[in-house]
Amino acid sequence: MGSGQVTDSSAPFDFRGKHVTVAGLGVSGVPAAKVLHGLGARVTVVNDGDDERARTQAAELETLGVTVRLGDGATLPEGTELIVTAPGWKPDKPLFTAAHEAGVPVWGDVELAWRLRDRDGRKAAPWLAVTGTNGKTTTVQMLASILRAAGLRTAAVGNIGVSLLDAVTGDEEYDVLAVELSSYQLHWAPSLRAHSAAVLNLAPDHLDWHGSMEAYAADKGRIYEGNRVACVYNVADKATEDLVRAADVEEGCRAVGFTLGSPAPSQLGVVEDLLVDRAFVEDRHRNAQELAEVSDVNPPAPHNIANALAAAALARSFGVSAAAVRDGLRAFTPDAHRIAHVADVDGVAYVDDSKATNTHATEASLAAYESIVWIAGGLAKGATFDELVAGAAKRLRGAVLIGADRALIREALARHAPEVPVVDLDRTDTGAMLQAVQEAQRLARPGDTVLLAPACASMDMFTNYNKRGDAFAQAVRELGA
Fold it and tell me: pTM for the whole thing?
């Protein structure tokens, strides 16, 4: 971990009269255009699409005096002095090539929010930031719950769906923000300097956007740059610690690990049935602080305990008490479709983890149960399944496969778990979920868990993972009717 004072490059930026191009409409582009217009900028929005939703958004912005160019996101508007981009726009788009050649800076909406956080004379709320391939939303929500339990004014914002721009420019004032950041957002946020930050884990994802695993990891690692108090990493995932070592941070910033094992000094971990802190205590070489019981984590699956430890580390870096960590974890309710227990039917538990859309998330989900009938499949997004199946083979009672790319999982099961019975449903209509659950019930025995953890995206059969999880839950309810 680099040492020395980091220069904050987020110098004040006067937007009055500046020609700013916003790349993309949607959930980030529209608020960015409105905020910039309100700051006196001359705003042009460019957007690749020209559908009904885009036209509706364009009409709203044009009433404010914002120029909108639909169906042309490739050409740099003449006179552009700054681009503010939606996070999903890939770095190799022609618009950004033209901007680079013209010397025009490119910011994301997170960078814009960071630059605006201390306007109007208000004290800027510090950011406790979280990224990782999986677990970001849950960890940030846990963190916000802990901060609220400590009596702090806070909000869970960022990639979680609540606009960071709204948080920093709205009327409500906060003591601290719990910020979820994607690799896309971090790529476009060069000035971000968090109070403390965590990288939960790293696994191949979005490589079509980043171009390589190295580039993906580097963008994740940006979250540590300039941290003031703590860089929180996953002891079980060496790549996260490597990112800490490579980061240039403020003098005195510490590396703090979290582990499902017994913690060493400067770590948080688990001792018997307790979550304990050996990082933010006096004489951490001799002492540990009990934070909560494992049973205070909902649900107490191993990867969710890891999320809780990361959230606790960030909260403790901000001076939050052990009692507030416990109370916040107890108060936390996870979002739907994240290892959510649906029902018990004839002694079999049915669990919805439709949010497990990649192999890394599914690996964690499978590790949470001893004997599983696994419902999997969908759009593989280029993933391979050999390592996942080999690691889970001993836990599998059976497997029911659905979706367009189910053959990839079936072949991995044949190679690494040939004794596991497999039902291959050759249908991709939404009604396939009811048949999948019925087949899983046939394979299951009392004490088993029927687990929807698809390891794939949902769009071949469902609008999104939420609809897929809803279909599973409805099918389970029909079993018990």
Answer: 0.84
